[in-house]
Amino acid sequence: MTHDIARVNSYIAASHLGWKSKIRGGISNGAHKEFITGYVKAFLARATTFETRQSRRLSKESETPSPPFKRKRVRLSTKNPQLPDHRFWGNAADHIKTEAPSQARCIMCAYYSYKAKNERKPVPHIARPKKWCKECLDHLCDKHFQPYHTLKNP
User: Coil, strand or helix: which one is 130?
Assistant: First the structure.
């Protein structure tokens, strides 16, 4: 509906600015249709010649490619939380804290939070770090990085 109003308003403005129909030298039955076809042709010509620029977000993503994911996302059970076994896979020296492309919950903080909730104890704060383990691809806060990779059953 707003497109119709904009189209009619532009037709009225063009008429006041001196636009004349080529049919019969002025206003006629087909003048509005003629104006609209010219209007659409002008928009199409502009759209085909208009150069777009890449947004900042897309240019950032193309500069820093995200690492290929080696596994599916880990989901902790709220009733019986268990830490994943992939935290012990590979060489221990490869488990390095690096900058993550996004921010997410620390998996150990979430684990302790679910455990406390199930035991009806005060729920600890869940950190949202922007760092993760390069090998595991799990988000971890500074406090829990080392225990996550060393403790068998925390």
Answer: coil
What is the reported pTM? Answer: 0.52
pLDDT exceeds 90 at position 116: yes
DSSP letters, 3-70, are HHHHHHHHHHHHHHTT---SGGGS--TTHHHHHHHHHHHHHHHHHHHPPP---HHHHHHHHSPPPPP-
Cβ partners under 8 Å of residue 142, min gap 6 = 97, 129, 131
| Tokens 């994943």 -> residue | 84
d(CA 117, CA 123): 6
Beta bridge partners of 139: 132
Strands 97-99 and 131-133: antiparallel
DSSP state of 99: E
User: Domains of the chain: which residue ranges?
Assistant: 2-49, 70-150
Quick check: 26 pLDDT over 70?
no
C-alpha to C-alpha distance for 94 and 96, rounded to whole angstroms: 6
